[in-house]
Structure prediction request, 228 residues.
Amino acid sequence: DGGITQSPKYLFRKEGQNVTLSCEQNLNHDAMYWYRQDPGQGLRLIYYSQIVNDFQKGDIAEGYSVSREKKESFPLTVTSAQKNPTAFYLCASSIWGQGYNEQFFGPGTRLTVL
Amino acid sequence: AQTVTQSQPEMSVQEAETVTLSCTYDTSESDYYLFWYKQPPSRQMILVIRQEAYKQQNATENRFSVNFQKAAKSFSLKISDSQLGDAAMYFCAYYGSNDYKLSFGAGTTVTVRA
Prediction:
């Protein structure tokens, strides 16, 4: 089955700790994305990557970091610099090219910082 | 980022009835795409319908249809013959050809009454 997996589904961390969220896809997509979802605010783009070893900041990149060492994987690290890390995080992927290419979403990870 | 506004935080509809969700957006681009996504309680994002700005004909997918008013920058979603499984949060989203990213509205929660 082709798709996007995110793990874990729920994650709890103490304040001040860095935490890494996993995102893996086997759709052979070039592009991958990380979104944050808060109540009443919809989804906001954190980072995206069009190709391996390259990525760009989205609208709310402060306090986050990413890497793209493999086409299939795009992990997101929530650092201690992120002031309000508790949120629902969604990963997505798509082919990359001119015009719109449908983004397919993973099931998400709920991060709670205590 | 483009601004996408959903002015209805919540909507309720009787089973088998019709409900219309509103969305407006702000853009200076002429080439773009608009979407409605559904997020059920599982929180999986599901693409419901999409509209290319260059197409005058409104998109339709089974019981889901849109009213795209380009000059007014309005993009409403009509759900006909509402079913219990339609209960979810619905997000309007914009994708500009120069952006390479989706911009989401805050969402509308739809409740279906049996």
